[in-house]
């Protein structure tokens, strides 16, 4: 993605890859791209209560040249689409796109001629976040899932081939809910459930237990 | 000079204030009990599905996020009590706006919502939840359908008994409601006092019907006087 990928193969080791990915994910500056109601939740996420600064996201940059992550928050109209594309093109590599809310992800309830049916028609999207609008925790969850994906990103073509040869993982990076990933016990439960493909059932079961319903 | 000290003072004073930041990924604060999260397709206490494949949820959906394909139950393969069941059921979370109109439309309380919200995925396909993902897990005493009706001879028995034995939707409604009532009556001393008064009145009425105190808002007693 960046200039380090132009280096000859065999120089950089996986530890360096991890370090590079870690620096990338730990200083992840978003560009302000609030288009509608989702932007209100995005602002709430940046404010004191949810505080994205905990994850090194500090401030929302007004200039695309200083940003790594574009959070497309809200519905994208046909008229806004070229503007969005230009902002994306102006961002420096490496860059990521988070499609926040159902309108940005697929057009949502606005299935009409005025709205782009998913921002992935205009720019490549790295993570889709449903919700109308998603609550701040959901945005944090999406950002943390993206962190997980970035940590697993290969550095250079050789490494990419290596990872592709290894085949798909049982729990692909960016698929585990953050409250599970940050809790060792629950993460183990999730991995166990992934073997039988019952992760969603596990989620409902745990939620029912939280509600005080007797499970098993 | 004084102005500068004052403004630093404001910042400094915040060090002694209560922290408002939530520790989200490590500590997940429970949502409001009726928060609209991802859906659950509930089961009857014997494991049969509550969904009858009527498609009312799909009709109610303003975002066209729900797809239902009905199928007929047969003698050999029964998935729900009654005639029909949902052969295929999908909710597209890239469209769903969590308005809850589908829940209102559901005639069997088959579709309810949980408080789960961590739904982000890195492709659109993973946002389409299939029937297997939405169906509630099998709990104690439940059996994976298809199997014959275990709780009665017809679907009517299921719906009559459902008042006392709601199956998995107990997680979606019953316990939350009871919890809410418990929380709010304990905190609200006025409500507790009124409830006590009412109990006392009921006791005195049983023993000496004429001496019962007249409680405001009880029309039956006012009529007697």
* CATH topology call of the largest domain in chain B: Alpha-Beta Plaits
Query: If classified by CATH, what would the architecture of the largest domain in chain A be?
Result: 3-Layer(aba) Sandwich
Question: What gyration radius of chain B follows from the Cα positions, in whole Å?
Answer: 26 Å
Distance between the termini of chain B: 77 Å
CATH class of the largest domain in chain A: Alpha Beta
Structural class of chain A: alpha/beta
Strand order of the largest sheet of chain A: 1-2-3-4
Report the major sheet of chain B.
3 strands, antiparallel
Shape of chain A: globular
Order of helices and strands of chain B: HEHEEHEEHHHHH
Integer tally of domains of chain A: 2
Instruction: List unreliable stretches of 5+ residues of chain B.
Output: 209-225
What's the number of structural domains of chain B? 2
What percentage of amino acids of chain A are in beta strands? 5-15%
Mean pLDDT across the residues of chain A is: 88
Main sheet of chain B: which strands, in order across? 2-3-5
Note the total helix count of chain A. 9
Q: How far do the termini of chain A sit from each other?
A: 49 Å
Annotation, overall tally of beta strands of chain A: 4
CATH class of the largest domain in chain B: Alpha Beta
